[in-house]
Write a structure and sequence with these properties.
The protein contains 7 helices and 16 strands. The chain is α+β, with helices and mostly antiparallel strands. It has one domain: L-amino peptidase D-ALA esterase/amidase (4-Layer Sandwich). It has a 6-stranded mixed β-sheet, with helices on both faces. A 4-stranded mixed β-sheet has the order 1-2-5-6. Helix 2 crosses helix 3 and helix 5 crosses helix 6. The longest helix has 21 residues.
Length: 352
């Protein structure tokens, strides 16, 4: 049984991001039907990894596909399923996140899972969607420790409660903005006059840059400058999953996904050369099955763009605030952000 994480989320220390209200739990599961599950692997001195599963709904994903699109910010990564999602504009499996060298094993296990579901006995083609970041700084990544058992555990654990954040699941071995990264989530809900839609974000933070909050260079003030002379600090990647209950077609979902990168930029993210940055957006609304229901129009997208920018930014902060220090491979250490020190700096600038 995992020890409850007592580190606060961003809003629990008074850090308010943006102007739109959050959903009830300020997480991706505020989007009705969306479920998240983790399987965390911390074995011996070297294994620090895991897998995170995001289910758009609880039914058979293959027979009840959801509208979706993927935006590539920087393509130095391995995202299984990208081309078919963007060709057909839909996702037919849960979305799984893991580490770079476990992608193929996880995808294979996800295919087995889909084929085993009653009603899929005649299925001859499956497009698994599996993303990754490289956790090799802390994890024995060459051991490829995430396999079918861990995939099934994450899928089985998926539920509609607020997801665990920080050093869990696919975020167990990640590092972001000079500190221990991990899984983070957030949500925004539009007012009724703008549709009342909910946007939820879950991300796997493992990227470089200098941490910035409210425009304040927190990373540099805490001694974690990204560039010092000729030395460049840790780089990596990021996977962002965006859910909404708005009926949005694949074209506008791709536009929505692209705006998520603006939220990352507010945190100090720099889209480094070796960064694999992928943004997956889907609509969980089943209204697309109704012939008399039209998707959200272009001119209605702006509030949703604002919502995804704010939710993405806050999800990064949650991934850092909730993450705990992890020691792993070759005695490498990724230290948790010192929240009290960060808050002291923010208060001094009137940001809390």
């Amino acid at each position: 049984m995992e020890t409850p994480n007592k580190r606060p989320r961003a809003n629990e220390v008074g850090l308010i991001v943006g102007s739109l209200p959050t959903g009830p739990t300020d997480s991706i599961t505020d989007v009705s039907g969306v479920a998240v599950g983790h399987e965390t692997l911390m074995r011996g001195d070297f294994v620090r990894t895991g897998v995170t599963a995001i289910r758009p709904h609880a039914d058979n994903m293959f027979t009840e596909k959801v509208p979706a699109a993927i935006f590539v910010g920087n393509g130095f990564g391995k995202l299984v399923g990208l081309s078919q999602v963007n060709e057909l504009g839909e996702i037919e499996t849960p979305i799984l996140l893991t580490n770079t060298l476990s992608v193929n094993r996880v995808a294979d296990a996800l295919v087995d899972h889909i084929l085993s579901i009653p009603g899929n006995e005649e299925v001859r083609s499956v497009n698994p969607v599996v993303g990754e970041t490289n956790d090799g700084f802390l994890n024995d990544i060459r051991g490829r420790h995430v396999a079918a058992t861990e995939v099934e555990a994450a899928l089985l654990a998926a539920n509609c409660n607020p997801p665990d954040e920080g050093s869990v699941g696919a975020g167990t071995g990640t590092v972001a903005l000079g500190f221990k990264g991990g899984i983070g989530s957030s949500s925004r809900r539009l007012p009724p006059e703008l549709g009342g839609f909910t946007i939820g974000v879950l991300l796997q933070s493992n990227f470089g840059g200098s941490l910035t909050i409210k425009g304040i260079p927190i990373g540099e003030k805490l001694g974690r400058a990204y560039i010092k002379g000729s030395h460049i600090a840790h780089d990596g990647s990021v996977m962002v999953v965006i859910a909404t209950d708005a009926f949005i077609d694949a074209r506008n979902l791709r536009r929505l996904a692209s705006r998520s990168q603006l939220g990352l930029a507010r945190t100090g993210y720099n889209a480094a050369n070796g960064s694999g940055d992928y943004f997956i957006a889907f609509s969980s609304s089943k209204r697309h099955s109704s012939l008399d229901t039209a998707p959200v129009k272009n001119e209605q997208m702006t509030p949703l763009f604002q919502a995804v920018v704010e939710a993405t930014e806050e999800a990064v902060y949650n991934s850092l605030f909730r993450a705990t220090t992890v020691r792993g491979r070759d005695n490498h250490v990724a230290e948790e952000i010192p929240i009290e020190e960060a808050c002291k700096i923010l208060r001094a600038h009137g940001a809390l």
